Amino acid sequence: MMEAPALTALGDALERAAAQDLRRRRTRRRRLVALVATLVVAVPGIAYAASSLISVDEVAAGLPAGTYMLQGTAPHCTVVHAGIEYHCVLSKLPAQPEVADLKGTVEPTVNGDKHVNGGCRSLRSDGREWQCYIGQAAVEQRIVSADFLGEYAPGPGRG
Amino acid sequence: MQSDAQLLSAARSDPHAFRELYERYAGRVHGFHLGRTRDYEAALDLTAETFAHAWLSRARFEDRASGSAGPWLFAIARNVLVTSVRRNRLERFARERLDLLEERAVEPEPEERWLEGLDEALAALSDGELEALQLRIVDELSYEELGRRTGTTAGAARVRVHRGLTALRQRLLKPKEALR
């Protein structure tokens, strides 16, 4: 049993402080929930971006998959800007180039799912070196159109 | 009537439940500190610190005394008292956390004598009571296990613990001299 006024006053102060502490904790919790919600939205995007990063082997495979004349050329690619820009060198020159001078020629690249995922521009007349761009970068480089990017491409293109 | 354990559980989100627990124990906790310090204001501050600690750690309360929060609260009270004496300054961590500090013109200074009698109260218990309290409170044994360890029944073990706690409470709450 409590009778002392000082203890009653302390109880009042303690109860107020406890209520305020609860409010502070709830505010912090709401902020935490908001942060977690933000991360839940952001992290899949980050994960998607990471998963969409393409390997140099995939870029290399994309050249002959997208263009008939590049089949059998065994490209080897290196990263210029990961996921965006690659430099590729063909181990073998195209056997039957469709044009005499390939310099500046642009060709699409096709991924393993047979969809257009970017494009390359020939840096040399013999077609040995190509600068390749993935995704939107290929559109910005005017190699493929925005409509063509992502299109289904069951076989390498000719001409 | 709700048990202390139920009040502490409700107090996770309800300050009124904690107030009810405070109402039950404030007098005794203040009496405990008053008995040690013989200083009314110091005892009030220590009581505030004890309950502020209890509020902050209420989620960690484990019911080891059949629904009673007494042993838990007095363990906190003892720690607050001992810490204050060891640091030669009234413990204020929990009060600061809760913005519950009341500045005083003259802050009471803890003294070693505040701890006199604390260990003696334990020493005054019978061997059986001391062992029962040790096994129940410190080792956290169930009454059944406690009974097996001490060669008695769970019911008898419960009684032994209860007697030990009661004896401790009486000794620790007993003022050492006349108080204001």
Summarize the structure.
The complex is a heterodimer of chains A (159) and B (180). By secondary structure, chain A is an alpha+beta fold. Chain A is built from 3 helices and 5 strands, in the order H-H-E-E-E-E-E-H.
Characterise the protein shown here.
The complex is a heterodimer of chains A (159) and B (180). Chain A folds into two domains: 1-53; 56-140, no CATH class. Chain A has three helices and five strands; from the N terminus they run ααβββββα. Chain A has helices at residues 5-52, 56-66, 136-140; strands spanning 75-81, 85-90, 106-110, 116-122, 129-134. Chain B has two domains: 1-108, Rna Polymerase Sigma Factor, Chain: A, CATH 1.10.1740; 117-180, Arc Repressor Mutant, subunit A. Chain B is 64% helix and 0% strand. Chain B starts with a helix and ends in a 7-residue tail after the last helix. The A-B interface holds A 1-4, 6-7, 10-11, 13-22 and B 11, 13, 15-16, 18-19, 22-23, 26-27, 30, 40, 44, 47-48, 51-52, 55-56, 97-100, 102.
Write the SSE topology.
The complex is a heterodimer of chains A (159) and B (180).
Chain A: H1 5-52, H2 56-66, E1 75-81, E2 85-90, E3 106-110, E4 116-122, E5 129-134, H3 136-140
Chain B: H1 4-10, H2 15-37, H3 40-56, H4 70-87, H5 93-97, H6 118-123, H7 127-138, H8 143-150, H9 154-173
Helix pairs in contact in B: 1-2, 2-3, 2-4, 3-4, 7-9, 8-9
